[in-house]
Amino acid sequence: MYTKSWQLIKDDSKRTFDITGPETNTNHFTNSVHGMQRAGMNVSYSTPPLTNQTISKEKIKVLGYTHEPGLYERLMKEHRAILLKSMDDEF
């Protein structure tokens, strides 16, 4: 059993990805991405285990995607903006 996992988020519209972690508990990360998906954002994620072959972030590659540092933070800001706009539309 693996004790830690990387948190890999992908922006499927722009074909970019970023890696955060490693973390032992990925619940907050996965719930955040599910919220983004429910809000209509075209994102996906994976939580690959931390192994000897993937001990460094630089060794993780995603075919067809380019690395964008800070992607998770940018997507979280976009998600917040979508939520605030939807709240403003209701009132």
Which helices and strands occur, and which strands form pairs?
Blueprint: E1 5-11, E2 16-23, H1 27-38, E3 43-46, E4 66-67, H2 71-90
Parallel strand pairs: 2-4
Antiparallel strand pairs: 1-2, 1-3
Protein model, in words:
The protein is an alpha+beta fold and 91 residues long. The chain has 2 helices and 4 strands, in the order E-E-H-E-E-H. The chain has helices at residues 27-38, 71-90, and strands spanning 5-11, 16-23, 43-46, 66-67. A 4-stranded mixed sheet has the order 3-1-2-4, with helices on one face. Strand 1 (5-11) and strand 2 form a beta hairpin. It is elongated, with a radius of gyration of 14 Å. The model has no long low-confidence stretch (mean pLDDT 90).
> The biggest beta sheet, please?
4 strands, mixed
Q: Spans with pLDDT under 50 lasting ≥5 residues? A: none
Average pLDDT metric: 90
Distance between the termini: 49 Å
**What structural class should be given to the helix and strand makeup?**
alpha+beta
Based on CA atoms alone, the radius of gyration comes out at: 14 Å
Overall morphology: elongated
Strand segment tally: 4
- Give me the side-by-side strand order of the main sheet: 3-1-2-4
Summarize the structure.
The protein is α+β, with helices and mostly antiparallel strands.
Characteristic terms for this protein:
single chain, 91 residues, alpha+beta, 4-stranded mixed β-sheet, 2 helices, 4 strands, 23% strand, elongated
